[in-house]
Specification:
The chain has 1 helix and 9 strands; from the N terminus they run αβββββββββ. It is α+β, with helices and mostly antiparallel strands. The strands form 2 sheets. Strands 1-2-3-4-7 form a 5-stranded antiparallel β-sheet, with no helix packed on it.
Length: about 120
């Protein structure tokens, strides 16, 4: 009996893994990023991107900000420096220098607020 269960478990495990992989890669992410504003660093190396992120009917919209390489497109991921609930309506982003950004209009209801990212200092108001 134990041997039969062991054989069954060994036989079923790869099948379950394959089904999981197929399901994961067959359905696109339900989340979507809508770019609101972009500001490029003075040396054109980086850009800061303000976007609205929505992940379907069961979640609300959120305001998110990422700093990415100027040659890259915004990926379908969460913001890497700032995340807050609600629409991104009153935000302003200004590069003070190549390694310093000033962001205004941020919300008290934030989930993420990074002060330094890849040697870039971030100030919020």
């Amino acid at each position: 009996m134990k041997k039969a269960l062991k054989i069954a478990a060994i036989s079923i495990t790869p099948l379950v893994l394959i089904i999981g992989i197929v399901i994961t890669y067959s359905f696109p992410s339900m989340c979507e990023n809508k770019i609101i504003k972009i500001a490029t660093s003075p040396d054109s190396t980086n850009k800061i991107v303000l976007f609205e992120r929505s992940c379907g009917a069961t979640t609300g919209f959120s305001s998110q900000i990422s700093i990415i390489n100027n040659n890259d497109n915004l990926s379908n991921e969460s913001g890497n420096i700032y995340i807050a609930e609600g629409y991104p309506s009153n935000y302003s982003m200004v590069w003070i220098s190549n390694n310093s950004v000033y962001i205004t209009g941020t919300s008290e209801n934030n989930f993420k607020k990074v002060l330094k990212f890849n040697n870039i200092n971030i100030q919020y108001e």
